[in-house]
Design a protein that fits this description.
single chain, Rossmann fold, alpha/beta
Length: about 325
């Protein structure tokens, strides 16, 4: 993706994702947002930015319930993102999709999904469509380690492996499916090892390192784009907050959280770029100010946008 070509641009978008999510969390606490709290991906920014940076215009992604970062990494309009959070007609889905169902085909986002694992067969179907059309596009399907324990995962990967579909399955392994540790839920801890059962390569990578994710995603995309079939990429990452607003994460120790936060993808990347001499000392502050101003504008836009009319309740609904 052109907007993510440089290290500084990747840093900027990671910072934007985090600031956006902290802003909507603040808005919820202040009573501006209705409904359940959003599922934040704070801590997981490197996975979204690193993987999507390796895609090109015309490719597709499939997201999940913790998907704000994916949409922003696609260079989404922050104003429309915020309006969707606020449930307003100025949002990407006219305020009717909300946090867990944002989609925009023009950007290449086939949609987030509130049902665990439900996006995997959708993305697989999209990859089948691409194969029928004979283009060299790819689909990148994001889901968590909990979804990798669902039946749709096995059925979809088997189908994709059998038909050599152009799809990269990306497991964002943030260690916990709501409150259940992956160590207590899966017979194998290395989920990338499951790739061999479906005749595709699999790789596990440090999901807190944006460059490691980008390199691994580039390798996976190159494999898929030349017609060699699907690829399974597991990114080890960590969500700093609970599953949702109602979850204080009592199942995690403070020591564990502290250890993971030492690997913070933004702070560590800022330090790395400074060491390389590619990030001036005041650059991060300038970036943050720009981001804060853009979020101020986004909140103002969302506040000024109206709620959907009751007459629109059955609009944009499709069924076969």
């Amino acid at each position: 993706m052109k907007h993510l070509e440089t290290p500084k641009s990747r840093l900027y978008f990671m910072m934007l994702i985090r600031a956006f999510e902290l802003r909507i969390s603040e808005a919820f606490a202040n009573g501006k947002l209705a409904g359940t709290m959003f599922h934040l991906s704070v801590g997981q920014e490197a996975t979204a930015v690193g993987a999507i940076a390796a895609l090109r215009e015309g490719d597709f992604i499939q997201s999940h319930h913790r998907g704000h970062g994916h949409m922003i990494a696609l260079n989404a309009d922050i104003k429309r993102m915020m309006a969707e959070m606020f449930g307003r007609v100025g949002g990407y889905c006219k305020g009717k999709g909300g946090s867990m169902h944002i989609a925009d085909i023009k950007l290449g986002n086939l949609g987030a999904n509130g049902i665990v694992g439900a996006g995997i067969p959708i993305a697989t179907g999209a990859a089948l469509g691409i194969k029928y059309m004979g283009t060299d596009q790819v689909v990148m399907c994001f889901f968590g380690e909990g979804a990798a324990l669902e039946g749709e995962f096995h059925e979809s990967l088997n189908f994709a492996g059998l038909h050599k579909l152009p799809i990269i399955y990306v497991i964002e392994n943030n260690q916990y499916s709501l409150s259940t540790s992956i160590k207590r839920a899966s017979a194998v801890e290395d989920l990338s090892s499951r790739a061999s059962a479906y005749n595709m390569p699999g790789k596990r990578v440090d999901g807190m390192n944006v460059e490691a994710v980008f390199d691994a995603a580039t390798e996976a995309i190159n494999h898929v784009r030349k017609g060699d079939g699907p690829y399974l990429l597991e990114c080890l990452t960590y969500r700093y907050y609970g599953h949702s607003r109602s979850d204080a994460a009592p199942y995690r120790t403070k020591e564990e959280e502290k250890a993971w936060k030492k690997q913070d993808p933004i702070v560590n990347y800022q330090g790395l770029l400074a060491e390389r001499g590619t990030l001036p000392s005041d650059e991060c502050e300038k970036m943050q100010k720009k981001i804060d101003l853009s979020l101020d504008d986004a909140v103002a836009f969302a506040d000024s946008s109206v709620f959907p009319s009751v007459n629109e309740i059955f609009a944009d609904i499709y069924a076969d």
